[in-house]
Amino acid sequence: MSNIAAFMLGEQPDQLGRYIHEILAFDAFWLEHDHKYIQVLFPIDEGTKFNRHAPLVTDADRTAFANDPALRAAHLQALDKMLAFWGLAREGETITPILPLAPATHVWLKPHDHNQLRLSRVIRSLALLGNPAIAVQLSACLLAAADQTGSVSEKTRYHWQHALMVSA
């Protein structure tokens, strides 16, 4: 079992010694200010300058998540935690805002907010690790919000669209 799978299932900690249940217990302050958890909750296939210890998704990880409902469910539990933090909610594959869209209630709608990068990572991670339909829905929800509010840059919109593009 890979490190990513073992972490998601709560069988081993991340590189900083934290188990998934501990990270999922973070309050809004820690979710906003800690910058090293997002890479372990939502690993992707590219490195990051923000966390050199971040795990990288392999073909074996993709196969494991595709074939294991428990891994996909754990990944979605992390997604639901982050969606609530970002003022969004998931019902099945549908993702919608909890409150009316505005930068005051959705921090990621502010121009150049670091949560926009996190959202790009989440979309890509979902697409890579067996939840592509939910990745598409998250991207669509974010792009619709960007259209409605006009407060998200074209560069961010590009990243939200292209995070979905993963090779088979």
TrEMBL record:
One Pfam entry name: OGFr_N
Domain Opioid growth factor receptor (OGFr) conserved: 27-144
Coiled coil: none
Entry's Gene Ontology cellular component terms: membrane
GO molecular function: opioid growth factor receptor activity
PANTHER family xref list: OPIOID GROWTH FACTOR RECEPTOR (OGFR) CONSERVED DOMAIN-CONTAINING PROTEIN, OPIOID GROWTH FACTOR RECEPTOR OGFR ZETA-TYPE OPIOID RECEPTOR
Name of the protein: Opioid growth factor receptor (OGFr) conserved domain-containing protein
